[in-house]
Amino acid sequence: MSPTVTTSAEADGNVSLATARAAASAAASAEEAGPQPVTMAKALNTAMADAMHADDSVLVFGEDVGMLGGVFRITDGLMKTFGEQRCFDTPLAESGIVGMAVGMAINGMRPVIEMQFDAFAYPAFEQIVSHVAKMHNRTKGRVKLPMVIRVPYAGGIGGVEHHCDSSESYYAHTAGLKVYTPATVADAYHMLREAIDSDDPVMFMEPKKLYWSKDLVDLDALREEYERKADGREVTEGRAAIARSGTDATLIAYGPSVPTALAAAAAAAEEGRSLEVIDIRTIVPFDDATVAASVRKTGRAVVVAEAHGFASVSSEIVARIQERCFHHLAAPIRRVTGFDVPYPAPKLEHFYLPGVDRILDAVDDLQWED
Amino acid sequence: MTISADHASLGATGQGRPTLEVAEDARLPGPAAEAVRKFGITTEDYMLPARHQIQMVDQDGNLKHHSEQGAEPGHEYPLPGNDELLAAYEQLVVGRRVNDQNSALVRQGRMAVYPSSHGQEACQVAAALCLADGDWMFPTYRDAVAVMARGVDPIEAMTIFRGDWHGGYDPLKHKVGIQCTPLTTQLLHAVGVAHAAKLRGEDTVVLAMCGDGATSEGDFHEALNFAAVFHLPVIFFVQNNQYAISVPLAHQSVAPSLAHKAVGYGMAGERVDGNDAVALLAVLDRAVKLAREGSGPLLVEAHTYRMQAHTNADDATRYRQDSEVAQWVARDPLTRMKRYLTDKGLLDDGSDARIAEKAETVAAQLRTGLGEDVSVDPQDLFKYVFATRTLQLDQQSALLADELARDAAGAFSEEEAYK
Ligand SMILES: Cc1ncc(C[n+]2csc(CCOP(=O)(O)OP(=O)(O)O)c2C)c(N)n1
Ligand SMILES: [Mg+2]
What we know:
The complex is a heterodimer. By secondary structure, chain A is of the alpha/beta class.
């Protein structure tokens, strides 16, 4: 039930590096003017390079991000272009990476750090929750931490244990963190640049199954557009996107679930049902207005997320819709989420992941007969 | 670096430690290589702490003979200058007064909690005095006296314990990290500050503080390793006060000493008598000098004792004997320093009285500042969570404002009704 995305088997160091290289160089050779097929990986890479060009205090570091360019090649070429002072490998220690970034941010830098995989960010949890999230508050705004923690997250790549967690709810639940998650190539560029320019710490959740998905975009135009705006950072933060307009029900999704929701909407259209798809884009801050306006219009809502449903971002979205749209609802709000089980082994993940059929079943359940 | 597996082969000093191959020594950074060349010692002899802790003034206030101070080739510590010693003594007296005043304020309910450094004041003072203005310090919850000795206003330093906000001073202005409670997490911030400074070509030295118990935490390892790998001017200053709340050092580590951990990271370590302000200044001053000259990080372990309970909420009689505490009374850092400076002719009754007066002024400042009822602004709850506030926090702030406005109006009309 794969939506319109290209997935790659690239997961850990033990998978085909050739696949990743081929994809990266294909993206790199597409240098002609005008919109080209560009991967999300290339957009993220370009966003970091552009930010490093624009501001000397932007540094990139983490595990294998230097020579190798990261296990997903998102930092490809940055060390070569900007030197080992500005893009470098650290010893293997996630708490160390985040804690050192905190100190660098205290002392005038804008670190952009990579956690190699979602579940391998957990050793840094204390630094993230106790310091990254709280420093601004406890110092009454005197110390800002303009840092970005990039986390390749979620599943759908056939990854083994600990490589596919949807960890966004942990961060979204923590006061003081902003949580971004792009679903399109253009958003990946814009949102990463915004995150780097933000004076608040941002958990930048990258749906790894979308790394090699392609959209037709013009990276030069994106760069110009971003840099032309005096205050570009206000553009996406707190603003959900209407990924597809519709009138009968609203699908609300973010990150890896957006293409799935769009595929479901396309399938529903064939059955004569018009579904609107909202791409949340920034989980924190959350765009209540766009979501509520859509649900008031359609009167029905299904929230789609890969993460376990229990006590999650999807639960929060349902609660917020209920608080704001109760009298406009024609049916209870439904959720299609991962089951409340540890992320499954590769051969079982397709049972776990929310797919088009499960979404359409939930839509069918929205009491249309009344 | 290859450490010879042949543990029987003797080092250059013939002390039976495994030796580094000579060719490898040539790769050592500045001062380490220099020490190796100059003193003809092995890298391990440079990195391992001297055989005994460095102690310059004994517990009766007598300057020890140089040969008995614990110094060895490559571990030489010149006596600090008179001005520095006098400045340290003044801060010692003030620090002791602050500790005891705060403990009293806690008993009176004026402070929520105070982890006293009574008995550890020499460490507190030396940690601050060894640094230059442009240097940084990263203290723990127990290091309020060190924070004050860096020039932070006493009331601002105590805000965290007064309970109206989590921190009171501006870390950027004073170059002092916020007093840190999650154990050892601040050591990594120290590493980051040093790293940023190094990338900009600044010669900032950073002193990172933690306790003996904290050395068991994972961030201790990560911070020391990062500092060593990136060759950063960070001094890790461990106040080994023998206990982590109730747990004695023997349950934290069976290493020969905490300073011995340094060699595992490829940095130099040293042990020092943590109740001897003279030795502490000598060791830390040299550490700062070495770090500034490019030696990379250093680890200094100060042997001291927490004379009082962990905090006011703790009952130390449950885990240690009064007789043990009594032994340390005799090693008090203040009485020792006073006797030494008096014998040296640097201190007399007059100057001592003036210093005591200064300490009284600070204590009075604390009594007044912490005795006042501070007004808190409920809107501060929302003001500082983010640099760019979210709409959700705007709404929650309005909700609280409305609630308070209605409360105020309610109280007012009730009063009116009774008129
Ligand atoms: C990560 C973490 N775990 C536990 C605690 C609770 N705690 C506070 S102080 C302390 C003992 C620390 O001992 P030590 O490092 O020797 O410092 P000391 O209090 O003796 O100065 C403990 C366990 C904490 N603050 N942080
Ligand atoms: Mg201790």
